[in-house]
Request: fold
Amino acid sequence: MMTYDLKNVTAPAFTQPLKTHTTKSMNRKKLIVVGSSGKGGTGKTTISTNLALFYKNLGHSVVLCDFDTPHGDVASMLQVSDNRNIKTWLTVPHDIPTHIQENLLVTTEEGLKVLPSIQSAEEEQLVNNELLAKKIINNLREYDVVIIDAAPKFDYLIEEAYKQATDIILVSDPNTISLNNIYRGYSHLRNKIKGLDVRKVTLLVNKVQGKIGKDVGEYRRLTTIDNIYELPFEPKMQLWQNDGIIPIRNKQRSKLSKSIIEIGDYIYPSMNGYGGKKGRVKWKRG
Reply:
């Protein structure tokens, strides 16, 4: 039997954990890929992390995978430190028993399972492998929700994740250059994934200042994506990140938390109400 030298996981204590909500049983699994194209800093890792914690707080089994190589930030954002990462999965069998799977994942204090990105740029070539992506995804299918934080590029690892996704979230800021990059990435996906169901692709325009809904038509024209969410600008976000604060965990009344709740409810409509008020973020559909 294979053995693994695994470190203890450390996670910060938080003073006001979210109240656990019970929901109906999920009747289908979700593989949600959150990505962007050609540009970092759009907030995709923030969205991935908060969305994963939202689903976990609803009582579901959730894994957050950081495929943003070589410099993923999920582990840093969650303040977990460990040597387990996606490179570890190179040497394990294709069909791993559940107890071995759990030993290959880092666990946060609230029970969220995390698969961090690689630890050095030299390892990127090793994990840029569609077979590795298949191995990881296939072994995590028993979880209710698997969220993959994807790199802003389309290598073998990332393309395989997109191919298997039940839902694709593309994150941009309102900048025209960023939206043009989204268009190019979306066109690439449609060429690579024959018969791509456009209904499972959602554009999240993050850091919107001013009136919500004012520029949705322009976003649609620039990207050709019909399903569009706008997330209002959160002026304290940078300060929170510097202090290790995650909105859905610590700032539940913030604009971003309310946005994550709405997006989560839309992507997984089988969930019962979360308990927060809606209406802060407008849903726009073609």
Summary: Residues 62 and 72 are 19 Å apart (CA to CA). The first strand starts at residue 30 and ends at 35.
